[in-house]
Request: fold
Amino acid sequence: MSTLPEIRTRCLVVGGGPAGMMTGYLFARAGVDVVVLEKHADFNRDFRGDTIHPSTLELMYELGLLDEFLKRPHQQLRELCGVINGNSVAIADFSRLPTRCKFIAFMPQWDFLDFLSSRAKQFPTFALHLQHEVIDLLFENDRISGVHVKTPDGEREVRADLIIGADGRHSIIHTKGKFEIEELGVPIDVLWMRISKRKNDPPQSLGFFRHGKLLVLLDRGDYFQVGFVIPKGDFDAIKQRGLPTLHRDIIRLGPFLEDRIAELDDWAKIKLLTVQINRLRHWYRERLLCIGDSAHAMSPAGGVGINLALQDAVATANLLAAKLRAGPVSVTDLKQVQARREWPTRVIQTMQAFIHRRVVTGRESKSGDSLPILLRLFQWFPALRSLPARFIGLGLRAEHIQSPAAN
Reply:
């Protein structure tokens, strides 16, 4: 197999997900030579989330991209509801948010990434290479100098002054960089599957929760992407009990699916998503920085992991873009990114871990069908719904575009 020509760039971003593509866009916008490597041939993967939060829509406005972005097919969710112990409950009202878009946009993430990459390609300093899988780090005189890449046409080396690992929870960058990981532990996994959608199905909601179990439906046009929470490590036991038992468990939460549950007629149609909550003790070392899921794997609860990853990207560009355009950045510069983003990460992960240990456990509980007192308060005092709306829609320490735009 041939060896391809070496690539040299100021900044190399590994991973073409939300954190990586936003980082690439912002650095190129600032006039920094940046290369994004994505190991797949496209962005189309079922495990990607679909939520575009109000804070992300605000970023698109600040970049002058919002109107064009919203022309893409999407759904707008202005109030987040759920069916909890058989009760339909309004949980979050986004109408009071101090943003231009007072809703969550539901759009397949591959459409979001395709939009962002197409706009990034308009900058002369941006390059995206698909089917470029990083397999190792390169070192010169004990210092990281780049990455070794495998492609369908051969192997190549990419050299950079800064490498940003945005390649997800199974990051080759944080593995090869020998970063220390703190595991918070989470007692659930998720079964991921598709079920067809019908005209009279209920509107998009947070999900269906009953006695510790949770069913989430993501509307993807003509089908639902379905997430069913199970206890961690129970997938083999669920298989042994058989598909009819799984069908009954799903229908108990979403009775309207009974007329099509037989579509799940083979275990090959049901994928296991292993849930993790962890974070790196240090997100950086000389010439290397991890952000997004590479730095902190999140539970899918609330879809906030995508929001957090994009906020990491904005903070990274705010703190580093101007410096990197002038020359290499220092370890002290990289440390500032973690200092900026670690607090919201820790708070959200702590809340997710609590929810999974005490509420959404995947195991049948013996609690009654009444609503918890907090949810009753949301029904009695609708103004309180703005509090979860701020947490879900804006997150903690929302970032704004401060990185420069090249002339």
Observations:
- The first helix runs from residue 18 to 29.
- The chain has eleven helices and 21 strands.
- The mean pLDDT is 89.
- The CA atoms of residues 165 and 290 lie 4 Å apart.
